[in-house]
Amino acid sequence: MNYFFHRLITQMLPVAFLASFLVFMVVRLIPGDPAMFAAGGENQTSEEAMQLARERMGLNDPFHIQYFKWVGGAVQGDFGISMNKGVPVTDIVTSAFPATIELALFALTYGFLWGIVLGVLAAVNRGGFWDYLSNIWTGYNIGVPSFIAGLLYLLVFAIGFKIFPASGRVPFTEDPIESLRHLALPTLALGSIVAAQISRYTRQSILDTLTEDYIRTARAKGLRERTVMIRHALKPSLIPVVTIMGLQVGSILAGTLVIEQVFTWPGVGRSLVTAVRERDYTLMQAITLMLVMIFLTVNLLTDLLYVGLDPRIRLGAKSEA
């Protein structure tokens, strides 16, 4: 617990503060004036209307005043009003957030489980069929971007064979079967890259673990190879895999921004693209900062999983180091 608060205070909070400043600054470097969109568009906007819009949105205030107003509200859960839609940004984000989380969780679960299984099969059958198949599969998924793979899946399984729907979302609570059908293709496109990465690290980690002395001791005691693999080799082998899994959360969150466009998935990715197109500063800031905070939180929790996977690691020792 001490390590948790140590990381929270010394690393996560400063990084979050720096990220909020960078997000606020970078958003304002995007070409285009949000006042023009809020006042009616390029062909219907007078200079007077634009000035009124800029005053209403607080864009005439100095940069630091705008920043501290925004970050002060964000700390309290108030991200302001959408510059173009005129509704609280929190309402827009919370309505789109469940769809993105649903897709990300399914993609991560599929990527983690299939990556572990494929990595174990490749390590146990080193130089055999599963190892050869794993190399081909991981090479393809690492080399092909998720949006290209998504388009291929659409052409084959949605348009060609008409097995899965091509777009849209059905909430899992309304119709679980139909929801899974809509989730299948975006999950496959988004999670396969994660599975490929996890598979490679799992295979190499298990091969390294199998050379340890305690593995040779377990085998010398006459334990079955399956028992040696599951009880003694797999658990410590997952430590580097968990590290990669934490980093893959960032890839998943970034990937959803593109995959949601390909499959018309109504998540925060589509909301962010719309906000960029309309130069909606407040909505862009809220979504980007939210994704950063999710990534930081997951990486903090990843560190806490180390102790459960390997009792030789002590969080207290890490914090002292």
| Unreliable stretches | 315-321
Order of helices and strands: HHHHHHHHHHHHH
The helix fraction, in percent, is: over 70%
Number of helices: 13
CATH superfamily of the largest domain: MetI-like
Instruction: Describe the sheet with the most strands.
Output: none
Looking at the overall shape, the CATH architecture of the largest domain is: Orthogonal Bundle
- Indicate the structural class: mainly alpha
CATH class bucket of the largest domain: Mainly Alpha
Based on CA inertia axes, which overall geometry fits? globular
Strand content: under 5%
Distance between the termini: 16 Å
What's the CATH topology name of the largest domain? MetI-like fold
Structural features, described:
The protein is mainly alpha-helical and 321 residues long. It has two domains: 1-84 and 278-321, no CATH class; 98-270, MetI-like fold, CATH 1.10.3720. Helix content is 76%, strand content 0%. The chain is globular, with a radius of gyration of 24 Å.
